[in-house]
Structure formats: structure tokens, C-alpha cells
Amino acid sequence: MTTDSPASDAPLRVVALNCTLKPAPAESSTQLMLQQVLDALAEHGAAGTQVRIADLNIAPGVETDMGEGDGWPSVREQILAADILVVGTPIWMGHASSLAQRVLERLDAELSETDDAGRPILFDRVAVVAVVGNEDGAHKATADLFQGLNDVGFTIPAQGGTYWNGEAMQTVDFKDLEKTPDPVASTTATLARNAAHLARVLRAARYPAE
């Protein structure tokens, strides 16, 4: 199989969901981490923007549209238009944020949505995860998000998660660092390289229909 077709060389589309609990314009370590992921993806022809979930009225539920005032449909449109979804979350009490969980719950509605070939509508899309926190929990949050994202149809690339955990019981946040640690930057670069590669592979050779 080759991915050297014009379609595979076309720019990739990315949407990054910032699941910080802080509405704009508050500074957010998750925002900084996601921007670094977006910058790394841009080096591989993948462009996109962040959506801060706390700024929207994302209603609770497991439907694609929960009715008047629900902010999810506009987010869903961006997800469906993207080749790569990035979910970024802080750690709170050892877990991903409640807004990250709400994103998964709203994505659950896609299990009953299919394309013209009868395949789940989120097939052929890639998802990656970015986690920040000054307490333990990055591996668990990543694992939980991976499972949920894969369950609704996304494909996770090799080493598709990047994270930073600060020293436990301290107050230094990722955004407070003078420099991003080299291992974090290297992991983010690998995530971006593999995500862009996988997105182009799936664009050139889609999953089969039943």
C-alpha cells in the first residue's frame, strides 16, 4: 500500500478539545500543552485550532444534540470535519477532568451514527491525548480516554499520548515551567509524527464496510 496520492498529501485537519475547568481568558496549562501538540502537528502538514470546552454550554447527555442552548453540535461539526482529534485534560484528584468525561459521554452518541457505507461515522479518524497535572494520574487518564475514544471508532496511533506530571503535592504547573522538559517535547513530537502518518494511511485506505 502506498500513501503517495494527491489526497494523502493534502493538508490534514485537526481539532483540539481543551478540557480545562477554567473558562477563557484564564491561563491554562492544558492550553499550553495543546498548543505544543498543534505546533508539532503543523510540522507534518496538519493544521487546526483549540476549542475550550469550559467556554461552551455542553449539556449532559448521550445524544448528538440535547436541544436548545446545547453547545455540543458545533463541536461535533468540527470533530466530523477533522482527520485528527486531540483531547487535552488536566488531572484532578487523579482523574481526567469532568469536562473530558462529558466529551466522552457526548461522543457515545456516535455509536449509532453510520456513514453511507454503513460504517461507524468516526472510523478513519485519529485521536490522541495530552494530559497535564501537578499530581499523579496521567497514565490512568490517558488509558481511560484511549478506551473511550477507540470504543466510538477513533484509531489511536503508536505512542499517541503525551503528558507532564509535576512533583506531587507541589504548586508548580506546566505553564509555570521556564522550559518544556526534553522528554515531554520528544514525546509530543513522536505523537504528532505518528498521528499525521496514521491519518494519511487511513485517508488512503479506509476501513472496510461490512
Short description:
This protein is of the alpha/beta class and 210 residues long. 36% of the residues lie in helices and 18% in strands. It is globular, with a radius of gyration of 17 Å.
Task: Break the fold down into its secondary structure elements and pairings.
Layout: H1 6-9, E1 12-18, H2 29-42, E2 46-52, H3 72-81, E3 84-92, E4 95-96, H4 98-107, E5 126-133, H5 138-151, E6 161-165, H6 182-204
Parallel strand pairs: 1-2, 1-3, 3-5, 5-6
Antiparallel strand pairs: 3-4
How would you describe the overall organization of this protein?
This protein has helices at residues 6-9, 29-42, 72-81, 98-107, 138-151, 182-204, and strands at 12-18, 46-52, 84-92, 95-96, 126-133, 161-165. The protein has 210 residues and is an alpha/beta fold. The longest helix is centred in the C-terminal third of the chain and has 23 residues, at 182-204. α2 crosses α6. The protein contains 6 helices and 6 strands; from the N terminus they run αβαβαββαβαβα. Strands 1, 2, 3, 4, 5 and 6 form a 6-stranded mixed sheet that branches. Mean pLDDT is 93; it is low at 1-6.
